[in-house]
Design brief:
By secondary structure, this protein is an alpha/beta fold. It contains 25 helices and 26 strands. It has four domains: 23-198 and 381-391, Glycogen Phosphorylase B (Rossmann fold); 205-365, Rossmann fold (3-Layer(aba) Sandwich); 414-544 and 727-736, Nucleotidyltransferase, domain 5 (2-Layer Sandwich); 548-715, Nucleotidyltransferase, domain 5 (2-Layer Sandwich). The protein is elongated and about 115 Å long.
């Protein structure tokens, strides 16, 4: 260690001699907004404290100079920095074009400033569009650039801007080991990369304001306690402005419902920021008793506010970076920070598309205390950066050199791998058959295997494993890459644990069965399990009539009656996984007995078993067969015979079917009055026989406000298998909350 310290001192001495003993390094620091100043200020203080080595020129531009964003240039003056130049570079507007015009305006104004200052090096921070203008100007004017926080990965256009600045910059200060590796992978010279940590952590980790309560009360009110308020900071996502505005609206709705004192900061200057402010005002946030809406909070006070908050919510990089230093819970919404390294205090809600989802996240996070994280720094970044600046040799060639990795000849790819199809193994456990299929991402059943469902638990599980292993082996031959296993089964299922809690009477020895563990252990694949009715609804959502529909219900009409409910694009399971047992909606108090033990359920009227029961009664009374029908002596009477008899004019059979259709229709009316879906999908072998009867009952019995519902017959051949596949395909191909 002593050797390397002496070596470093010797190098600095040599650099000073090369640069001229009395020559100071002229450093220009350009700051564009409140966020980048919080990172640049510690460096500026460090430079100012060593006048024997450095001359500091400060250039202020961007949102610092806009009243709508708090005129934050004043905090730079309050920190006793002389501002050399103020550049008004923001073009007012609410779309992407305004950002482009702002970059253009900055490019027009900056050359004159840089010609006058003639800095040896310019320090540029981050990934804002203003910073891109600064780096472009300096690079074209042959001014060395030191880029702070390069190599990081987040979301939206910020990634592209950050990496573009990296390519223009001559020196790099990064915050994490991963960022350093990314810079090296981007062919930057390792000798010009400094792993220093985040400069703001120098201030964060030394912040010991004993009078933090006065700060909290000043911004949130006299009656607020520590850990009992929320800090919200959300910015528009410039690559999807419309969605980010909607997400902000849902966030505010969730915060209003959560009913805690909340400090809301205005968003950054970006396309869409004005619309976000309009949303705030539309919802009355600035006058709501639980909210305090502010344009700017000084960084040292902001530190204290987030350090003692019950939670921080939004999509600011501050949430996933700085707040981890205090262990404050954070809810990161959307994709703006996707890819950032985070501590365990951050809960990601990638698809923040419902108020309930955000509200649930608040309930999970609010008031917790996590271990403090130092992913982004240890509090000693500034001394390292100053030392790095002193080591820069101005006599070295200005032209950048890129360190490209060696390129091997004859690089090729296997065409089979290119054409490989992402697929799922789907398992359908029915009352009669056990089916396994390979299902592609597009819903194509590539290969299907069918066996009779064994009567005992041991035989059934053994057969499932055997069929799955066989199908997984075959997947290689048909160029399918299996992502996981989805299982559709009758009965009540706990999908979180992959356990069948209670079975229907159609599947024996099938209660308290852990399906996930043995299948996952045997195949080394993730396994998802759900009820067959829920799977049918998922199949419709991904591949059928329910695609893109926010609220719909699926009813399966087969051996039994089941179904699934999609509400706000999400499947409803219920508190004890018993939601959507639609077959057991009671439509008559003194109706026939159901297999569940109750009376008058839809299933007791309209299921295949119920129709078979009525067919047998008619057959026993010699009232089933009509002209054109025949049955072999050993043939079992089934629902199909009843349907055939009704088609051939048997009034008794037709009456049974009409009663069954009416019972199903009444159940659908109850569903419409409870859930108010926009679509009802009838699935299963009996669906086409019931659809007209259901529509008639809706027209007669339903409230006028729900009569406009669409009732359609499913066009999916295998909804149970496709639904089981969608369990896998939906989860493994998107990151969900």
């Amino acid at each position: 260690e002593v050797y390397f310290k002496n070596l470093s001192k010797q190098k600095q001495k040599e650099v000073m001699e090369k640069n001229g003993n009395n020559q100071k390094l002229r450093v220009c620091v350009a700051t564009c907004n409140r966020a980048d100043y919080s990172k640049l200020a510690p460096i500026m203080f460090g430079i100012k404290a060593e006048p024997q080595f450095f001359e500091l020129d400060v250039v202020v531009l961007g949102s610092h100079l806009i009243d709508d964003y708090g005129n934050t240039y004043r905090m730079i003056e309050q920190d006793d920095f002389d501002i050399h130049t103020r550049l008004h570079t923001i073009v007012r507007g609410e779309d992407e074009a305004a950002m482009v015009e702002s970059v253009g305006l900055a490019l027009v104004k900056l050359p004159d400033v840089l010609n006058r200052l003639k800095p040896d090096i310019m320090i540029v921070h981050g990934d804002r569009f203003d910073a891109l203008a600064l780096a472009t100007s300096a690079a074209l004017m042959n001014i060395r650039i030191l880029h702070i926080e390069g190599g990081e990965v987040s979301g939206t256009i910020d990634d592209s801007i950050r990496h573009a600045i990296t390519k223009l910059a001559h020196y790099h200060v990064c915050c994490t080991r991963s960022a350093e590796q990314h810079l090296i992978a981007m062919c930057e010279d390792h000798d010009r990369i400094l792993l220093a940590g985040c400069p703001s952590y120098d201030k964060l980790l030394s912040a010991k304001n004993k009078d933090y309560m006065s700060i909290i009360r000043m911004w949130l009110g006299e009656d607020v306690k520590t850990r009992d308020y929320i800090v919200a900071l959300q910015h528009p996502v410039t690559t999807d402005i419309k969605h980010s505005i909607k997400m902000f609206e849902l966030t505010l709705d969730a915060l209003i419902s959560f009913n805690k004192r909340t400090l809301v900061l205005f968003p950054n200057v970006d396309a869409g920021d004005k619309e976000m402010v309009r949303v705030m005002r539309k919802k009355g946030i600035e006058h709501h008793p639980n909210f305090r809406a502010v344009k700017h909070v000084p960084f040292d006070q902001f530190i204290q506010l987030v350090a003692h908050a019950g939670c921080m919510i939004g999509n600011s990089s501050c949430g996933v970076r700085e707040v981890g230093a205090f262990g404050t819970p954070v809810i990161n919404l959307g994709t703006r920070q996707t890819g950032r390294e985070t501590g365990e205090n951050v809960l990601h809600v990638r698809d923040a598309d419902t108020q309930d989802k955000i509200l649930h996240a608040l309930q999970l996070q609010f008031g917790k205390q996590y271990p403090c994280s130092k992913i982004y720094g240890d509090g000693n970044a500034v001394p390292r950066i100053l030392k790095f600046l002193k080591s820069i040799d101005l006599k070295e060639p200005l032209q950048k050199k890129f360190c490209f990795p060696p390129v091997k000849d004859n690089i090729s790819q296997d065409i089979d791998h290119i054409l490989e199809t992402q697929s799922a193994l789907a398992v359908d456990l029915g009352g009669t058959n056990l089916r396994v299929a390979i299902v592609s991402m597009k819903g194509e059943i590539v290969k299907k295997y069918t066996q009779l469902n064994p009567k005992t638990y041991e035989d059934r599980l053994e057969l499932i494993l055997k069929m799955c292993v066989e199908a997984a082996s075959e997947a290689v031959n048909v160029n399918c890459r299996i992502l996981g296993v989805g299982i559709s089964t009758g009965g009540r299922v706990n999908p979180r644990e992959g356990i069948v809690l209670h079975s229907t009477k159609l599947i024996q020895e099938w209660s308290s069965v852990d399906l996930r563990t043995p299948i996952s252990d045997a195949l080394h694949l993730p396994v998802w399990v759900d009820n067959d009715g829920n799977c049918a609804a998922l199949a419709e959502r991904k591949f059928g009539h329910g695609k893109g529909i926010e609220n719909f219900v699926t009813l399966i009409t087969g051996t039994g009656i089941g179904g699934g409910i999609i509400h706000q694009h999400e499947l409803i399971h219920g508190s004890s996984f018993c939601a959507a047992e639609l077959g057991h909606i009671v439509v008559s108090l003194d109706g026939p007995e159901c297999l569940c033990g109750s009376q008058g359920c839809i299933e007791a009227y309209a299921s295949g078993i119920a129709l078979q029961r009525e067919a047998k009664k008619l057959h026993d009374e010699d009232l089933l067969l009509v002209e054109g029908m025949s049955m072999k002596k050993e043939e079992v009477v089934s629902a199909a015979h009843l349907i055939q008899a009704a088609k051939l004019g048997n009034t008794k059979a037709d009456s049974v079917l009409r009663t069954a259709g009416t019972a199903l229709g009444l159940g659908v009316v109850n569903i419409l009055h409870t859930m108010n879906p926009s679509l009802v999908i009838l699935s299963g072998v009996l669906a086409s026989h019931y659809v007209n009867a259901v529509k008639d009952v809706i027209n007669r019995q339903a409230l006028s406000s729900v009569k406009t519902v669409d009732v359609v017959v499913s066009n999916l051949a295998d909804p149970a298998l496709l639904g089981a596949a969608s369990l896998v395909l939906d989860y493994t191909t998107r990151r969900i909350y």
